[in-house]
Amino acid sequence: MSETKRNKERVDRAWNKLYDRLDADGLLLSGRQDRKRLSASMLWKWGAVAAIWIGIGVFLTTTYRKVDESVEAQVLLMRENTEQSTLVTTLEDGSIVYLGGETSLRYPEHFSMDKREVSLQGNALFDVTGNRERPFLIETEEVRIEVLGTAFHVKSDAGSPFELSVQRGKVKVALKNKNQEMYVNAGEAVTLETHQLRLTDYRDNTRIARYLESMRFKDEPLMNILRVINLHSSGLQLQTSPSLGERRLTVAFSGESPESMAELICLAMNLKYTREGDIGVLSE
């Protein structure tokens, strides 16, 4: 005998016992009324079961949706640079991060409404887009950094003490597990020595220049690549159409001029390059 048939017989026996007991206690109506009452009871019973399962289904769907939305909100992306050349990444808000060798950056796909928070391990140059309503926060192992809009260099690799130098703007540095924080202005640097932050003058721009000597872009929109090139070009400015600007490209440069970079991009993407004065145009 199949398991389904055995289960059906057990259910029938249980219902018969219940019916006999109710009949013996005089709780059943006779004839047509009896059949109506029993049918209504059974309908109520199965309706209750259905309601329970529907309720569970709604609960599970709602819970899954809430968990899914929460996980989606917390999804982190990671850029990891295992090479010595600089890996350049543009974040959702337009901030540019130049990752040094053996450096990793974790950041959300979409920043929250009240802050822009990332986590850094290693050395990087940041050029942060200004937004006073949404401060830019950087978490390192020992220090928390808060900026509104500025350019600065962070050194937080495991082999040397923490160091931050500001190229422009102002940065607030807070030491974790210690009640110490410090504001660092352009031309200043802060270092971590014997568990204390120490402020000094900083005039050495060669470290920042080294980030620009050899740059790589990995699966970056063309518009972001051209923007970085233009930021560090005193003359020629590169342009393209919005549709071409959305196309993604992986490319590396090592000391080329902006015009040579434009020609390399055109070669890789099968585009044309034309120049009029200080404007270089990439087109199909």
UniProtKB/TrEMBL annotation:
Keywords: Membrane, Transmembrane, Transmembrane helix
Transmembrane segments: 42-60
Pfam entry (one): FecR
Family matches, as Gene3D superfamilies: 2.60.120.1440
Gene Ontology molecular function: any one: sigma factor antagonist activity
Ranges of residues in domain FecR protein: 84-172
PANTHER family for the chain: PERIPLASMIC SIGNAL SENSOR AND SIGMA FACTOR ACTIVATOR FECR-RELATED, PROTEIN FECR
Protein name: Anti-sigma factor
Lineage: Bacteria, Pseudomonadati, Bacteroidota, Bacteroidia, Bacteroidales
